[in-house]
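Input:
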Amino acid sequence: MNKDKWTQQLRDKLAEREVAAPDDLWADIEAALPKTSVEKGKRRSLLIPLRRWAIAASLAALITGGGFLWWKANQPDHDEQELAETTTVIPPQIPEKLQPDPEEPQTSVKLQTFDESLPSEKPAPSETILPYSEETLIQPDEFLAQQEPPHEQTTLPDLEAVNPTEEAKEEKSADETIRQLETQIAMLTPKTGNKVIVSLYTANGLSDYQGANGVRMSDELAERYDVSQYMPVSGARNRAAANPIYLVGYEERQKHYQPVSFGLSVGYPLSSQFALSTGLVYTRLRSDFTYLMNDVSILRQQTLHYLGIPLNAQYHLWHSGNLNVYLSAGAEADYNIKVKTVSKGIEQQTDRDRWQFSMQGAVGIQYDVLPQLGLYAEPGVKYYFDNGSNVRNFFKDKPLNLNLQVGLRLNITK
Amino acid sequence: METEQQLLDAIHSGEREAQHRLYDRYSGYAMAIGLRYIPDSDKVRDVLQDSFVKILTSIGNFDYRGEGSLKSWVARIVANKSLDYVRQHEHVQFTNEVPDNADDEEEPDVGNIPPDVLDNMIGQLPTGYRVVLNLFVFEQLSHREIAQRLGISERASATHFFRAKKLLQKMIGDYYIQQRI
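Output:
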């Protein structure tokens, strides 16, 4: 009792005591604070849900978009018929369609979707656009991705499909056929088939990736030295066997810089809303591995160069004035053309990475500055499959990535 | 006066000045805590700098539980940082000796000793004793908890506390004698 009383007395006497801190201490603390930690923390916490939201939105868009595409793909004939009907009715309809009319029913708007956007219509700042522009602002870095690509092979059947129709009709009546032909050609010219889309783009991931690993002491060694007796916390003795013991002063750190890639792609519209694209993309991955042993550190820098071929499908969702919104999904295969590893200034022999496959999905927004030239941004997600190689790189440590691709798209009308 | 809740709200809203207010409000308190572990104000200065940087950068994770909880949290961080410092920079030896004839000693009367003198006396205790005294009296840990924290036996913790008290008693006695002269 007495003891408790004494303890209490001492505590009461001193616990609330204050001693003036050194005058200049605050200045040092302020200087040491990471540029307003609080704000930084807040921003990060805002970003995380945003990223999650973006991933979720992209996935949702992909799934619904993919489902819709699939559904559409199963009814191509029906579409064609509709087109043919529209065309056959009145040739004068065409000029009407070319007129910018925002109030027009969706069907006719869709017909214009893939073509040069006509002047006069302003890009309506609709709500749909906002999330993307915000996202782009918030995420300064970007990632790699690739798309746009047209597939000549796939396109050919499309053209062929037209010919049989024409031929079939030719057999019927000459006049009718000629008129139909004219209208069809008129419709097809602006709409599909005869346009090649070439894009130049760059894409980036949204962040670097860093990590550190302790170097574990082997159990035998730990036992030999009876490490547990040196553990600061009592009770650790019992736990020592179960818990790994990390060597003090030994550490491995790895930093993967965000991948940088750029490429060229060629796209070919299959219909007014559906397009395929392929191309060639170059990607560079850089990583620093630092091995720390007490005061000694060894830095190993690894640079991997890949050349990849993307294949993507795009589906146009919405169009207004010079603005297009579309979904894009596809896959890519990257081949590691070169690897360079430098440790302490000496280049080392390293095996090349295996083929790297990935899948991606994105929502794209394109603004046509000119009818022939569009600026586009595609925020999306990309997933890299583990290729089983022992090359450590960004793709292995962070297989699922948000990425942003930006580029220029040229519409070349044949 | 601004409540802890208001202060926290201001900090969370990104008000830089609010961080300074938190520092102004608790730096004296923190300094006293640090000095009880490390009787060297230059060293305590470093510890406080570390502590406040940690406090201000991790305040987003602080779970507010009513007025006073922020102050306790600050105290805990400063005490932990101080203890870390002592363990890293001072060679602390803890013995497992059984206390000499305990309990029959008189309690050293602290009632009439000025707080700064008393703090000064604590500062003169050997490091091991000082640490245990701090943990037992000010952080109100049990000997079992102290033992776990320091990796010593419960008995050793009790011994250190007992000896700390005994030394204090001697110092207090000397102090009274001096005062009388």
